[in-house]
Amino acid sequence: MKTSDFYYDLPEELIAQHPIKNREESRLLILDKDTGQVEHRKFKDIIDYLYEGDCLVLNDTRVIPARLFGNREGKDEKIEFLLLKNIEGNRWETLVKPGKKVKPGGRIIFGDGLLIADVLSIEEDGTRVVEFRYDGIFEEVLDRLGEMPLPPYIKEKLEDKERYQTVYARHDGSAAAPTAGLHFTKELLRRIEDKGVSIAYLTLHVGLGTFRPVKVDNIEEHHMHSEYYELGEEAAFKINSTREKGGRIVAVGTTSVRTLETVATLEGSIVPKKGWTDIFIYPGYEFKAVDCLITNFHLPESTLLMLVSALAGKDKILNAYRIAIENKYRFFSFGDAMFIK
């Protein structure tokens, strides 16, 4: 299977540059994965497609201000850091631009010395492992110096940082938002629960694995970057109970899918776990835990497009994308949503 099999042509004006005013007023394309039939609704109508006895699974990670700008010690040129994952203590894996100027033994200064990064090593994929030094609390220093790590295709400034967080974000650690969840409001979640749908939370800290481009022609040669996840006993109980009673597991976002499929047994039951996952889901994959998916529209030739194609079929997905483009849906992080049922 070739990476080019997942290409589609997207007009640039359909890339959403900012969130719409009311989260749940975004558009919702319904795709029936069995028939390929498409419907057009508003996101708030998702409640009509969730049934009593279903379980909605949400990723409650919170985006940190993971983009930092500094300079090499004694030099003026700007160095950009993107914090990808906390390895342990003050050691972080980072994406650095321009990378060739940042070598092991180097030191990067941020905020006139409020934060200092010592470069320890260069990994095989080109990321840098650094150790930070600072006074006080790291999260407070980061909040002061860091910026929200919006994707490069978003050119406009985000006025309200909370619009790049889900309303249920709780656990700091992501370098990008789990964007399928951005459409939910607290009121909509309350109405969904009132309908008899249980809500389970897991955590996957979104790192490079979710949005790194596929650079190989044969997709089976692509290796995912690992991301940290936690799924606790309460969530496992809710999901397993739903499955035992014949309800559907509705994942919100590809990060929830990847976590659920990582921890599921061959029979589809969920085991409470935490750890690192580099699961890569593409057509031919047999789903063990997930029945339905709420997701945004993904970049051409991306691992996320491959994941949704595994669930609904590549031809049905690309046809739904063609229809979405014809109907001028908004794409990517701040764009509209799709429900694969």
How much strand content do the residues show?
25-35%
The CATH architecture of the largest domain can be named as 3-Layer(aba) Sandwich
> H/E series, N to C?
EEEEEEEEEEHEHEHEHEHEEHHE
Q: Residue ranges: pLDDT <50 for 5 or more in a row? A: none
Question: In CATH's first tier, which class of the largest domain applies?
Answer: Alpha Beta
Tell me about the biggest sheet? Answer: 9 strands, mixed
* Total domain modules: 2
**Terminus-to-terminus distance:** 25 Å
Shape: globular
The largest beta-sheet arranges its strands as: 2-1-17-16-14-3-12-13-15
Under CATH, the homologous superfamily of the largest domain reads QueA-like
What does the model show?
With 341 residues, the protein is of the alpha/beta class. It has 2 domains: 3-63 and 160-340, QueA-like; 67-145, Thrombin, subunit H (Beta Barrel). Helix content is 19%, strand content 28%. The chain is built from 7 helices and 17 strands. It has helices at 138-145, 186-194, 208-211, 233-244, 254-263, 303-312, 314-326; strands spanning 27-31, 38-42, 55-59, 61-63, 67-72, 78-88, 91-97, 107-110, 115-122, 128-134, 171-174, 198-204, 227-231, 249-252, 273-277, 292-296, 337-340. A hairpin with a 2-residue loop joins strand 6 and strand 7. It is globular and about 60 Å long.
